[in-house]
């Protein structure tokens, strides 16, 4: 097991010419050793501090952030690719009006479900928001589990071209005709390195890799390799934490219970309203979100209610597994089994030093 319930502290540091805050250092959950990790050092370069609360779905990240708001003047930046969509509230477990009132929130309800929002756009928006929040004398806290967004923010790839809406629409249309596995095979012919690390049905990443090749004429893996040779310096100081409930069975119980609660709270009514718009279909990014994909299939008569529950819960557990795998490969994240210890860690991270 990567995470232990006792959360024994381990520390491993690396030295590199360009230290990447997402890859260097290795620490598990003890606030007393905060100075052991480069990414958790007090801010001495007049850069904004940026606190991160990462973790798998249903781990309690939102509750931890709201608890932190009682101790620090924070504003919350959502790191969730589903929360950006308007009208998708129940199935995304979007914070309630009462929760949103505890602290200012950003990057929630910013686009229609017909639109797309890339990791590159998130990185641009989050970087801007971090600076703006700091300028207001407040502390930005980035909360969520879309690890591709985190990677894009902490490992900026300025050489990658911006998105092309028309080309993405073309790719989506082709995918509806021949399927994402076929497009994955096309990607393998032009960028074998990128294709090898993607699942054949990873629509968002396959689409982005094909888009980059279309716009630049070069494989994404090649552009990333060049960027890694001289990574740009971050304009903020990240303090990375993750909330990891243990044992794993407890997380699965939370996931299963939350999906049942979503249905009881009217998730299918929300889906009926989304379908009634007339401008959405099952191939769109918003409707491929976990839970929404399964609910759409149920309303199309492709699975029973019992199968919807089973498939929705299973898909959410798989999402959590992918999130944990990403965190496991990112050793500079300080992992905690309880929110109280995580909060103390972050409070210490921004405590003024004399």
From TrEMBL:
Pfam families named in the record: IPPT
The protein's required cofactors: Mg(2+)
Gene3D superfamilies associated with the record: 1.10.20.140, P-loop containing nucleotide triphosphate hydrolases
The EC number(s) this enzyme carries: 2.5.1.75
Transmembrane regions: none
Catalytic activity, as annotated: adenosine(37) in tRNA + dimethylallyl diphosphate = N(6)-dimethylallyladenosine(37) in tRNA + diphosphate
Binding-site positions, substrate: 57-62
Alphabetical keyword list: ATP-binding, Magnesium, Nucleotide-binding, Transferase, tRNA processing
GO biological process: tRNA modification
Class of enzymatic activity (EC top level): transferase
Chain residue ranges for the region called Interaction with substrate tRNA: 80-83, 204-208, 288-293
UniProt-listed InterPro entries: Dimethylallyltransferase, IPT, P-loop_NTPase
Entry superkingdom: Bacteria
Site (Interaction with substrate tRNA): 146, 168
Gene Ontology molecular function terms on file: ATP binding; tRNA dimethylallyltransferase activity
Residues bound to ATP: 55-62
Subunit structure: Monomer.
Function according to Swiss-Prot or TrEMBL: Catalyzes the transfer of a dimethylallyl group onto the adenine at position 37 in tRNAs that read codons beginning with uridine, leading to the formation of N6-(dimethylallyl)adenosine (i(6)A).
Entry similarity comment: Belongs to the IPP transferase family.
The protein, known as: tRNA dimethylallyltransferase
Gene behind the chain: miaA
């Amino acid at each position: 097991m990567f995470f232990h319930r006792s959360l024994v502290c381990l520390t491993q540091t690396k030295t590199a010419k360009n230290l990447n805050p997402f890859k260097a250092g290795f620490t598990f959950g003890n606030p007393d050793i905060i100075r052991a990790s480069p990414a958790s050092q007090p801010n001495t370069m007049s850069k904004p501090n940026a606190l991160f609360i990462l973790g798998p779905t249903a781990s309690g990240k939102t509750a931890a952030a709201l608890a932190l708001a009682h101790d620090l003047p924070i504003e919350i930046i959502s790191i969730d690719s589903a929360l950006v969509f308007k009208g998708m509230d129940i199935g995304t477990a979007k914070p309630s009006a009462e929760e949103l009132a505890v602290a200012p929130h950003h990057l929630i309800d910013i686009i229609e479900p017909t639109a797309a929002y890339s990791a590159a756009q998130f990185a641009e928006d989050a970087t801007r928001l971090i600076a703006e929040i700091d300028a207001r004398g407040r502390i930005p806290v980035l909360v969520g589990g879309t690890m591709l967004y985190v990677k894009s923010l902490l490992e900026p790839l300025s050489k990658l071209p911006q998105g092309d809406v028309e080309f993405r629409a073309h790719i989506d249309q082709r995918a509806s005709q021949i399927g994402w596995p076929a497009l994955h095979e096309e990607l393998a012919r032009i960028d074998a390195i990128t294709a090898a690390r993607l699942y054949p049905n990873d629509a968002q990443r396959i689409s982005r890799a094909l888009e980059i090749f279309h716009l630049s004429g070069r494989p994404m893996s090649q552009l990333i390799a060049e960027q890694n040779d001289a990574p740009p310096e971050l304009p903020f100081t990240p303090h990375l934490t993750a909330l990891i409930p243990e044992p794993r069975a407890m997380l699965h119980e939370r996931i299963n219970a939350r999906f049942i609660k979503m249905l009881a709270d009217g998730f299918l009514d929300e889906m009926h309203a989304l379908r009634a718009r007339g401008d959405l279909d099952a191939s769109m990014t918003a409707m491929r979100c976990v839970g929404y994909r399964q609910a759409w299939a149920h309303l199309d008569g492709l699975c029973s209610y019992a199968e919807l529950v089973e498939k929705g819960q299973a898909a959410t557990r798989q999402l959590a597994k992918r999130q944990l795998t990403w965190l496991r490969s990112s050793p500079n994240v300080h992992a905690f089994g309880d929110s109280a210890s995580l909060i103390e860690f972050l409070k210490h991270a921004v405590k003024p030093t004399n």
